[in-house]
Structure formats: structure tokens, C-alpha cells
Fold each of these.
Amino acid sequence: MRLPLKDSDYFVIRVNETVKTIDEEFFNFLKPKLQMKKVDVMLGDGTITNAETFDLTEITNEFRRILQSLKDWAFTDISDSKTEDLYRLYFQITCNVDKFYIYGYFGIQFHALHYYKLDKEVINIQKELIKLNHDVSDSFISLANKGNAIIEEELRRQGLDNLSFEELFTKIYENSNLMDNLEQKVLKLEKRFPVVQDSENKREQLISELNDMIIKLYHIIPVKIDYNRLMQGEEGVISYFEIETIKNKKTGKREPYLDTKKFNKEITEIVTSKLKEIAFSLKELRTNTNKKVDEDIKINTDEIY
């Protein structure tokens, strides 16, 4: 069952309160790292513009800090996924507590936008590509005209020049030798136009160089989102938990249904205490980060005076 649970008994109230605290601590920990910063980038037409992004590497490092701080929790490596320009960066944790299996998901959902580096070489490559495409287009037209003439002559030689398109298509389909013969003549013609292949190779090289000049900027709205908003593709910070009853510890069989009204205060305390470890770790990490920032500011101030 996904938390928060929909009921009002003691177990549900206490667990929901604890999960809410974790959610707030995780968001407060990440929010300062998700502030958008302005950078200069180049558009496809060479225009220089101002865009915003956040440091994805820093978020990855902060996720590692969280995982390193959690004791007795199993966890996955930090993962990412994308659908077109919508990205996710996340990690998952699990723990068996008494007769319960607890699963936690922590992550962010954001968009990636593509720009070019602020480099005049981008313009130079684009100009070269335009000229090359023009030259290749002229060569292709010449090659196509000569190829059509060769095919027409071969069809005339074999008495097939007066057939309708459907009839000619049937003849070629039924006569593999005719198809092979026409292909060979066209291939011989193409070898007389090496500039076409050379230009195509050069074009691929330039496109590859241009792609290397592309950079990704990441956009996020630093707000809390729930599971439903995650599935709807909204940007933001997410954490959620699922809890199941372990029916058989040897086989690992679990039951998603929880009869929470039967859980006493002792069981409730066991579950909430384990969850509170996460909230405590997040709060401690945030406090230590703030202390370091204050110390850095003090050092810089002392240097001024």
C-alpha cells in the first residue's frame, strides 16, 4: 500500500505523520541545490541568449550523501530515465521491519533543453554544412539524371520501354536478373561520381562535430510533487513510500493489504522509529550543509577585513 494511508487509526496517523516529515526534510534538503542559474548559450541560428539551469552533478552527489547516511537500509544505485525531454533522477531504498516490508522512492523530475556551446565554431560548421548540402544536391541531381537515362536505355534495349508502371514493376519483380542488371549499371555510374560519397562522408563528420557542441540545460520547478503528479510528467521533488506485510520470511512472499486497526502501539513505534531514521539523517545532512556554508561565508568575510 502506498503511503499516506487512508484511515484514521493510531498506526495510520503516526506513520502518515512520519512520512510527511521525511517528505518535507527531503524537499528542504534539495531545494537550495535546485536554484536555477543563468548561463549564456547559443541557438541554432547563432543567436546568443540567456538560459537557466541547475547542477545535475551536485544533485547526484547529494543523493550519494543521503544513501551513505542511511544505516540498515538496502538501496539501489542512483538511476535515471527519460521520455523525450522529460527526465528523472532517483534512488530507491528498502527495509524489512518486524513483519513489514518498506519501500521508499526519492527523486526529482525535470526537463532537459538542448543548446549549443558559446563557440564561434558552431557558426563555422553550420556555414560549411550549408555549402556542402548545396554542392551535394547539385551532384545528386546530375547523378539522378544520368541514372534515369541509363535505366531508360536498358529498358528500351530489352523492349520494355512502352510498358505501364504496373506492368514494368511486375516484370522487374518476376525477373531477378533484370533487377540485378539495372542495379549493377547504377552502381558503376555511382563510382564515376566519388564526390557524392566523399561529400556524404564529410557531411556526417560535420554533423558529428556539431552534435559535440550541443549542451543540455536542466529545468525544474523546485516544488513538492506526489506520485500522481510524477506520473503526469510534472516537474518537482518527490518522495513516497509503500508498505506491505511479509507473509513468509523464507520465501519473501508479501501481502499489500494492511489491517492497520489491528496494529498496537509497539508495532507502530517499531515502524515509525525506522522511518524516523531517514528524517533524522536528512535533517542532519541539511544542518551540516548550512553550517559549512556559514563557515565559508565567515572565512570570506575575515579575508576582506
Note: The first strand starts at residue 37 and ends at 42.
Amino acid sequence: MNRNFKKDQVETMKLVTVLSVLVLIMLVLALTLMNNLEYPAANTDPQTQYMELPALENMPLESAKETLDSLDISYEVIPTQSRVANRVERVEYTGKDEDGKRLYEIGTTVKLHANEVGTDKVIYLTFDDGPMVRYDLDMTVYYTTEELLDVLDEYGVKATFFLAGYQMVKNDRSHFVNELYEKGHLIACHSYSHDFGKIYDSTDDFISDVKEFESALENILGKDKYGSIGKYIRFPGGTESNGIIFGDESLEYINAIRGEGYKVYDWTILTNDADDSYRLAGESDKDYFMRSVKEGLEGAKGKNKPLILLMHDKKAMTDVLPDILDHLIDEGYYFDTLENCPEYTTAE
């Protein structure tokens, strides 16, 4: 039995040895085969990620910065030579357009092209009472506000238009109001009726009149455009309008309209285009308006107030506006709309 056991043991060892050799050969063949196979190179680059970039063109620079900060998007302001200060003129970014959306590449810097200047160099052009339709003596119609807009376009500057609701409606100036919006000018409220006796009878009547303006403007612009603009108002006659409202009563009206989400603006510089009481004997419109502006600028120095220039929608202003703009540019001023201006009222 010992002889048979030893024989079996030897045979088992031979079998194990053969199997071991076979396993080793198979491993060598498998490794050889794997080395001879060609695999595509591994993609070590992470897939590019995108997010939608909000519309920033024509936006006040500070608002654009706040928007990008809220989305955690880094940005850089690239100086431009625009006459319009502190407003995004153009946006540069790495990304692509897809299905009408601007997709921004995460991790790169958005470049905001804008003319960023100090507030002491900015003047706010404002026009009241439009949009007007005028007639010559031969009944030829001309559109004063459109002519003002043509001048502003020529100089590449923006302004704030305090529109009267009844003027928008009675002459169907919807096309012009939309043009104001599309060109980046600010549309603001100057009441609907511009009727002192009506709107200053009570704060309720005032609010009701403004609501009528809002309804008219939304009908003209459409819901989306209307919803994209803020609420800015200039009281007809100002917040202390020739004794009609004054003192504590003015503050009641101001607080009431602020409760509706509005910012209130008077002015700090006049052209006196609606008041001849300061005109010198024989003084032309051009000389009168220009003198008023120069005196206003001089009087505003050192008072730490925003430079808000009041003008009206009238033919005389259309004719003199180029001279006013030339003077302001020569004096080193830039322009913007009231979106970038803090509230200013003479009643406070």
C-alpha cells in the first residue's frame, strides 16, 4: 500500500505541475494579446460646461456687476470712449449661441465694455411732457420728440423721457415709445393727465392717475418690456409745484408714490425753456437757454448734488439741443439716464 500511495502522490504532483505550466502559458498569452490591442486615448479634459448669460447690454454698469456677482460670474470692465457713462455698451465672453440663448463658458471672465467715470462728471438729460405732436402754420405735422431723439442719436447719448400718458394715447405715439425703449433711453412717468387740479386734489387721485399711466404704457410696450423697466416719476411742476403742494403735504405725496415702488426726481439745472421770466430783453432762445445751463452748472459746483438738467418737449429745445450738448462735451461731461442716479427731490 505504501508503494501505491507513493505512486499516486507522484502522479498528482505531475498533474499539478502540468496545470501550473498551462496556467502560466495562458497568462503569458493573455498579456501578449492585451499589449497588442489598441485602445483609444483616455479623455483627460473635462467636458466644457455652460450656463446661460443674462442680457447685459445697455444695462447700468452697477446693475450688471450686481447681476454677475449674484451668479458668481467673474468679470472685468474694459474702458470705452462712449459718451454714455457707467453703462454696458458691449459684452465679450467665451461661449456659444444655442436655440437663441447665449451660453457662457464656466470658468472664464466676462468682459464688460463700458465708460466707467465718477459721478461728478455725469449729467442726466431729462425731457418732460412728451411725446408731442406739433403743427406748422400750414398744418404740416412734425414730431418734436422724434427730432430730439435724432439729435441724441447723432451725439450717441442717452436721456430720460418723463412722458405724459394722455400724449402717448391721443396721438398714437406707440411706435415712438417703443423706439425710445429699443434705443436705450429711459421711459419715466410724468402722470397720465398732467392736470394739476385733478392729480393734486388728494393722494388717492394722484395714485389713480399714475395707475392710468402705467396701464397705457404697458399696453404700448407689452408686458415683457414694461416689466423690464423700473419706476421713475417726476411730479408735474415738481414736488413743490407752485404752491399747489408744498411742505408736509408734498411729503405725503412723495411717500404715497414711493409706496407704489417709484423713485422721485426733481432737477438741479434748468434751461428755463418753460419760463420766460428770467429772459433778458431781446435774448434769443439759444442765448437764453445756454446762459441758463451755464449758470446752473456753475451754481451746482461743490453742492454734492446730481446734475439733472430739465428740458421740455418743444421745438425751441430741438433747435438748441446740439449747442447744449456741444458745450457739455467741451466741458468734459458724460451722460446717463436716471437709472444710475440716486433719488433727488427739493421737498426733502
Note: Confidence is low (pLDDT under 50) at residues 39-45.
Amino acid sequence: MSTAGMEAIDLRAAREALRETAPLVHCLTNTVVQTITANALLAAGAAPAMVDAPQEAGDFAVVASAVLINVGTVHERTAEAMRLAARSAGAAGTPWVLDPVAVGGLAYRTVLAQELVALRPTVVRGNASEVLALAGAGAGGRGVDSTAGADDAAEAAAELALRTGGVVAVSGAVDLLTDGRRTVRVGGGSVLLTRTTGAGCALGALVAAYLAVTDDPLTGTAAAHAHVALAAERAATVAGGPGTFAPAWLDALDAIDGETLATADVRVE
């Protein structure tokens, strides 16, 4: 379905810009998902770098096109690297994404994520339970699984976006994205995304990639979500299950062009 309220050319231009510029995305991310995250970025046309040593993270965030901070398997060393990268990105004007994996369920990562939110990420991307917990409006989900729907987190997401001055993206059956003033819904996708390790974490990296090539963070976030959803729909038509879905999804991420992205189910409210 064509976009309504957001010009299709915005999505088309974002896709073309990503391919043309190949942004360098600095990923401090979950050790379980590093490979699929790197492969998803490469398939989309970006360049991944997994630099998570405290001695390097701050310096690299300055030269990268965008930064992803994902607290999935955080420990003391990587937590410090995340703080340094976030501070450096903010000082340099480098866009960065916070993925608050399982926040609310465990105290250590919840405190860390609150510290990172105070550094004003360009985008916070998580499931509804994670966003509710980060906004102080819920207790978190069941591990990495949400126990709430995207609409349940709509008010908290808008308030959090106004607090950070950025965008909050809530994943669900229909994704909800907001900058506190505008709300965008992105439909489509496949349930097989939820049965593929790292698909959501890879989405965070793709959001960072699109932030690097768009002037409006809400447009960049919508483009990344639409890209992932369309690729999932295409992959699901040829996959026999989760095992064959993952490589088919990577192929589809590569195949989606600007014209195709402009047909995504993206609605502005």
C-alpha cells in the first residue's frame, strides 16, 4: 500500500541515499546477534563495524556515520564502552540508536539504559514492554519478549520522545513510531521475524544506517522499519520455516530498491 501523509519519495530517496553513501555503522551490540546484524547492514548497503572496547569506542563513534547501542548482553566493560560511545556521538552530532533489550526485567541493564537515555539518543527502538519500562510506565516484559502491544506504549513512547528530543520506535504487529508530535505506523512484515535470532537487533542497526542518510529522524526510522517489513514479506513467500527464512530475508534486504520501498505500508497520523 502506498504511503499516506508521508511522501513516497521520502522513502525512495532514503533507500537510494543509503546505497549511494554506504554509511559506516558503529555497533555495540548483543554478542548473540553480531553476525546477522553485520550481514543485514551489508545486505542493505551499509558498512558495519563492531567496536566495543572502551579504549576505542568513544573515538570510533566520532568517525562513524551512526552508532547503535544495544544492551542485550551487557557487562561492565561493554557498559563503559556504551557510555563513552554515546557521549562522543552526542558531542560530535553523530546520530545514535538505543535498543533497550530486556530493560525493566533486570536492574543492571535498566539503570544503564536510563543513563543512556539521559544522553539523548536520536532514536530509542524496542518492544512495547521495554519502552514502557524505560519511560517508567511499566515493569518490563518476559525476558526479550513483550507482554504489551505497541498501542499500550503509545503515550509512554510520545512522552519519552519529547524527553529525549528524538524518536521512539515501538515494534509490534504494526510498528508505532513517534517524535512526540507526529506518529507513524508501519505495517507488513512476517511472524517469522519473531522466530529469527537477531532480526529485531538488526533492525536497530538498520535504523542507525538510515539516520545517517536522512535529515529527519522520523523518516529515517520509518524507512528502516519499512525496509525490514517488506523484506520479511518477500522472504516468507519462499521460506519453509525459520531456518530458510533468515538467509532469504538477507537476500530480500539486498533486493528492495527505492521504488519498492516507496510502496510500503507507512501511515502518518
Note: The beta strands are 24-28, 47-49, 66-70, 96-99, 123-127, 167-171, 175-178, 183-186, 266-268.
Amino acid sequence: MNGPNLLTLLRIFFVPLLVAALLGGGAFEDYLNGLLGPFAVTRETFALVIFLAAAGTDLLDGYLARRWGQITTVGTLLDPIADKLLISAALISLVDIHRVAAWMVILIISREFAVSGLRSIAAAAGYTIEASELGKTKMVAQVVAIALVIAGIQWPGLNQLATVAMWSVVLFALVSAAGYFRKFWGAVDNHVKTRRRREILAMQRQQRKLRRANMAASVKVASKG
């Protein structure tokens, strides 16, 4: 297990801590204060620190993997899973405490499932879909928006900015998803159709060869008779 992969696993480990900080209530805050002692903070501040630290590992693990030449299959699989776990857990927790509209979260998470499904279909067809620049911008917008919403619990003056940021995330999610499907669906569909046509032609050739072989065998038997 290399360093970048450990950072990805650390991001997954941060997810239950983030959920506990957002949903744990006074009991979690009392436990946190007892644990941290003189460094005690509110659970909202702790949640914000945990979320930003987890988001920071997303930037760091990719940078280190490229710099150190440690890009692995495990890391390639774990990284998007860790991203989706972090963002989904944060958004669902914020819905539960009535800080984000549920319909926004449904749209954002549904977009992730839709694009992941498209990537899976493309991968099965031997076609790789790379993350678009708009998709990367969407991830940054999500981190900023969620951080502002969490910070707004402690500092209400940020709530209006957080609302604008969440609307931006919804817009990025919809536009980037449309871009993925517009750019890649036709290419993937054509790739799959071309592969199937080749498979059908190969099967037909095999059947013709088999029929010719059977006819030759029949002629041979008839000539002997």
C-alpha cells in the first residue's frame, strides 16, 4: 500500500467522523470537548475541519501519485469511490439537519450515479471516459459549497453565500452530466454496435465454414457409397 492510496483510505475513514460531527448533537460535542481538552471546539467547527482535511487528501493523493509514479489500479478504483462517499455523506447529513434542500442533493447524487453508469458501460465496451474539465470544476464547487454550508451553521452571515454556492453546484452537476452524455453516449453506442457487427460477421463466417465442412463430409460419404 503506497502513500497516495493511504491518503485515499484516510479520506474514507474521515466520512464517519464527519457524519458523527454533523449529526451527533450535544452528546458528540461533550465527548469531543472531553477528548480535546483545552483545544475544544464546537462540533460544527470540527466537522468543517474534517471535511476540508478530507477534501485536501483528494488533491494531495492524485498529485503524489503522479509525481511519484505510483498510479495503481487500486488507487484508480478507490479514489472516485472515496470522493462520492465524502460528498454524499456530507450532503445527506446536511439534509438531515435542514441545511440543504433535499431535491438539490437528489439531483447531485443522481448525477453521480448516471455518470458512473455511463463510465461502466463505456469500460465494458473498451472505451475510457476521462474526467472533463467541467467535471473537475464541479468537484471544486461541491467542496466550496459544502464547506460554506457547514461554516454557515456557526457563522450565519455565510448562509446567503452558501445558498448561491449550492445553486452553482446544481448547475455544474447538470451541465457537466449533459456534456458527458452528449460527448460520449454516441461514441460508446457506435463502439458497441461496431463490436457487435464484427461478432455477428465472425459468427456467420464460422457457420459458413461449418456448413462447407459438413457438405464436404457428405459428398465424401456419398462418393464412398
Note: The mean pLDDT is 80.
